[in-house]
Amino acid sequence: MPYTKDDDKKYQEELKHKIAELKKEKNAVILAHNYQRESVQDIADIVGDSLQLARSAAKVNADIIEFCGVQFMAESASILNPDKKVLLPVKEAGCPLADMISPEKLMALKSEHPDAAVVCYVNSSAEVKAESDVACTSSNAIEVVQSLPNQKIIFVPDENLGKYVQSQVPQKKLINWKGFCPTHIRLSEEEVIRAKREHPQAEFLAHPECNPEVLKLADQVCSTGGMFKYARQSPSKEFIIGTESGMLYRLQKENPDKKFYLPSEHLVCANMKLITLGWVAHSLEFEIEEVRVPEAIRLKAKKSLDKMLEITYGK
Ligand code: CIZ
């Protein structure tokens, strides 16, 4: 008998049931990033950006954190919550942007600019965070750079975010690492112009990892968290979303009277999409792949995350 759509639906329901049972049995909580598949967002206890998820992990009373996202996000959750077992359902779910800088390359750059402070985007490894003065996200990068006494700032690894911050903080000199997000850089100026032509009433919200030509066309440049807030508060009814496709599901769910459009079919992060219900069930059942950062690196990386939290939340 051929496998049908109904069989697939039944299988997905069985997986959801299995995940719910395993969660209870193991006292686990499921966190999912805003870029995850709809089916994964649906089974999550919390959906958010990497920082929100890492912070909320500290507040939950669970023994296991099932982190549906990519490697650096699970690492940040583990750095901030060393007493909990953090699982990444698919160990291959990496971040090419985070892999574009190594601690050795960062150390070499630091020795060329000894008077510069080092700011690392959260999309970086624990080792790179450990070599940085302070971390930042796309929602607080400007605030973090402004808060530092140094005039010179080494900014790693995302060049587009660094250039955007430089445009907003012209009094500082940013030395930007030439890393990029392979998903965001694929959004072209032409695609945005076409989407604007097709939806003339829509506001264009762009993520700062997009290319500068694309950001020039934006009505608002914001992080994923900023996009949710802006879409909720804006009187506009239509929005073109310049970031990963997973965002549209929650935006639409939270704003049923508004319309959201993806300007390009290329805005799909293959690593985020590696996580499926099947892998979540497998990971919970066998408690794999555990993400743990060696203690000496964890303590140094935590310092840069704590400094960012202090700048952003004052504690
Ligand atoms: O920090 C995050 O979760 C990422 C990768 C993007 C964003 O804007 O929230």
Care to describe what's here?
This protein has 315 residues and is of the alpha/beta class. The chain folds into 3 domains: 5-94 and 273-286, NadA-like (Rossmann fold, 3-Layer(aba) Sandwich); 98-181, Rossmann fold, CATH 3.40.50.10800; 184-268, Rossmann fold, CATH 3.40.50. It contains 14 helices and 12 strands. It has helices at residues 5-26, 38-43, 50-59, 71-80, 103-112, 126-130, 141-147, 159-168, 189-198, 212-216, 224-233, 247-254, 277-286, 295-313, and strands at residues 28-33, 46-48, 64-68, 85-87, 117-121, 134-136, 152-156, 173-176, 203-206, 220-221, 238-242, 259-261. A 4-stranded parallel β-sheet has the order 2-1-3-4, sandwiched between helices. The mean pLDDT is 96. (~{Z})-2-methylbut-2-enedioic acid (CIZ) binds next to helix 3 and helix 11.
Descriptors:
Rossmann fold; binds (~{Z})-2-methylbut-2-enedioic acid; alpha/beta; globular; 3 domains; 14 helices; single chain; about 325 residues; four-stranded parallel β-sheet; 12 strands; about 45% helix
